[in-house]
Amino acid sequence: MSDVIVLAEHFDSEVKKVTLELVTAARSLGSPVVLWLGAGCTDSVVETMGSFGASQVLVADSDAVRNHPVAPGAEIVAELIGSMSPAAVLVASSADGKEIAARAAIKSGSGIITDAVEIAADGTVTQSVFGGSTIVHSKVTHGTPIITVRPNAIPATQAPTTATKTDITPAVSEAAQKVTITNRAVVEKGARPELAEAEIVVSGGRGVGGAEGFGVIEQLADSLNGAVGASRAATDAGWYPHQFQVGQTGKTVSPQLYIANGISGAIQHRAGMQTSKVVVVVNKDPEAPIFELADYGVVGDLFSVVPQLTQEISSRK
Amino acid sequence: MKIAVCVKQVPDTWAEKKLRSDDSRLDREAADGVLNELDEYAVEQALQITEALGGEVVIVTMGPERAAETLRKAISMGADAGIHLVDDHLAGSDAIATSAALAKALEGRGFDLILFGSESTDARMSVIPAMIAERLDLPQVTFAQKVDVSGTTLTAERVTDYGYDVLTTELPAVVSVVEKINEPRYPSFKGIMAAKKKPVETLTVGDLGLEASVVGAAAAWSAVADFAARPPKAAGVVVTDEGNGGTKIAEYLTSQKFI
After folding, report:
1. Is B218 in the A-facing interface, judged by CB distances under 8 Å?
2. Contact A286/B238, CB-based, under 8 Å?
3. What is the pLDDT of residue A186?
4. Does pLDDT of A311 surpass 70?
5. B194 CA: distance to closest CA in chain A (Å)
6. What's the confidence (pLDDT) of residue B15?
7. Which of A21, A204, B76, B172 is the most exposed place for a label (fewest CB within 10 A)?
8. How large a percentage of chain A has pLDDT more than 90?
9. In the predicted structure, residue A250 carries a pLDDT above the cut 90
């Protein structure tokens, strides 16, 4: 069975959930070989990878990899494509992931497909495009298929095996070290899950009315252990930080549950959340287009509906 | 400081987008073509840098004849010149071929900075800046929320999932910017009038020194097998709040096992 390279997505030895989703997806194409760039690949990480079906974990850690973004990773991926002739390379659809995939595609003469939501055993990729309005099936036709996969699209399932860990020390060229990371600023993320990976997302829009209004949104999110999102109207107005924007020009999320509060549902926003499994809407305007997506909707004032909901959830736990 | 800003004409952000049934490509005729709104931030950043340090801003685009309007629109914000890659052979190019053509158009012109928006609102791949950096062997500083140029040193904040990384490099470099970096200006009447007279160079695949066989749909390294409209969602339940809206949602969430 041929190998399938999976580029691990991690932060500070914390394996991101999408990595397990990638390993799961890789199993249908071949034998998953995880590539871990940088520090933090502990024995327990290797064990976790094995429990999801990875046969090997290759660790590429050096100053070159740690201190320079994207380019070293792309070199290493391209080198492994050359030496391992894998059936495919799977990467998370994150900023780094897509860019490493893009550069490795050029280096190795391979086609690239981004934002897969499903991968069939024959390599056919399903994408959900134009804000989820169109489902596309496509295939890489040249070189090694390099596919980036959206977080939360493919459920991770276990398939226990024992993964071996191998340190590889690939040379990284000078050219790939032209950009230096001089500081990593970590914004306090608090206890909330990360937006792109969250099972539940609670969002606020124009109807929230101001920065203070996001308090009720956060309380609802916390009662459900969910992430907080915001529409562009809310982030443009400065009511909520920009990195939480859901929409065409922000993050794309597809959680199990999406609760849209005071969001009208312009295409701009729908493009970022349309593939959510269950959508609940609270909006005082019964004509708001977001109701078209609602599995359950309440026409009403979010400032009375949302706190009541939060209280109900807390009392039902 | 000589800055290139690569822009793309895309269907109006607010319009429904569709693929064409005959060749599975985006139906660009179905909606107005507009300047990709995320590119406006790149143009603005280029103008701010040259206003502070002096220099020239050249807008670069690849697209059919009608993309010329978008090129003029970007120039009207205050840029100095334009380059338009326009050739029927380019139609249907994938990201790999697009980056090959753009790289040829950009190289050897002495650009200190090559700027991009963080993504196009139609394809949304966000890979072209990285591919250009790869092809031209230039430093890549993408998803920047802040860019400072001092002498030949560039410092930027790259947005990450956990905050941001501070990056430094030497010019020339490829940079993409996110929308929170600035507030793009509206073209002034003077700018719009002036843009009509700014020089625009048109380049064909031949002018780029590329074989027609390496670009366009036939050269693409991935292919669409089929596509379909997403099945419409079954209509949900919508109720009017009568003082118990929150409780009703809680009941629904319980029935769906979220609580």
Report:
1. no
2. yes
3. 86
4. yes
5. 30
6. 77
7. B172
8. 86
9. no
CATH superfamily, region A195-316: TPP-binding domain (3.40.50.1220)
Could you tell me the two tokens for A219?
Answer: 């309380």
Phi/psi at B170 (nearest 5 deg)?
A: -105, 145
With an 8 Å Cβ cutoff, are B246 and A256 in contact? no
The structural domains of chain B, ordered by start, are: 2-219 (3.40.50.620)
Q: Domain boundaries in chain A? A: 3-177, 195-316
B104-118 pLDDT, tens digit per residue, is 999 999 999 999 999
Give the three-class secondary structure for B258: coil
A and B: number of Cβ contacts within 8 A:
268
Is some CB atom of chain A closer than 8 A to the CB atom of B16?
yes
Which residues, in sequence order, are CB contacts of B118 under 8 Å at separation 6+? B38, B126, B142, B143, B176, B177, B178, B179
pLDDT at A16 over 80: yes
Q: Which CATH architecture best describes the domain A3-177? A: 3-Layer(aba) Sandwich (3.40)
Does A195-316 match A3-177 at the fold level? yes
Low-confidence residues of chain B: pLDDT under 50? none
State the nearest Cα–Cα gap between B209 and chain A, in angstroms.
19
Could you report the per-residue pLDDT of A168-213, keeping only the tens digit for each? 988 899 999 999 999 999 876 677 998 988 999 999 999 999 999 9
**What beta strand segments (E) does chain B contain?**
2-7, 9-11, 33-35, 56-62, 81-85, 113-117, 140-150, 153-160, 163-170, 173-177, 200-203, 222-229, 237-240
B249 contact residues in A (CB cutoff 8 A): 280, 282, 296, 298, 305, 309, 312
Query: According to DSSP H, which parts of chain B are helical?
Result: 37-53, 67-76, 95-106, 128-136, 189-195, 245-255
pTM, rounded to two decimals: 0.91
Query: Hey, what are B214's tokens?
Result: 């390496």
Per-residue confidence (pLDDT) for residue A188, from 0 to 100: 67
What are the chain B neighbours of A300 within 8 Å (beta carbons)? 240-241, 245
Residues of B in contact with A317 (CB under 8 A): 259
Confidence of residue A1 (pLDDT cuts 50, 70, 90): confident
Residue in B37, B143, B236 nearest the CB of A295: B236
Rounded to 5 degrees, φ, ψ at A18 are -60, -30
Half-sphere exposure of A230 (CA within 13 A, CB side): 25
Say which of B130, B240, B254 has its CB closest to residue A316. B254
Paired tokens of A186 = 């970590």
What pLDDT is recorded for position A189?
Answer: 62
Contacts for A311 with CB less than 8 Å, ≥ 6 apart? B246
Q: CA–CA separation, A126 vs A146, rounded Å?
A: 14
The token duo for A139 is 């295939």
- Using CB atoms, pick whichever of A135, A281, A299 lies closest to residue B228: A135
Minimum CA–CA partner of A136 in chain B: B227
B229 inside 8 A of chain A by CB: yes
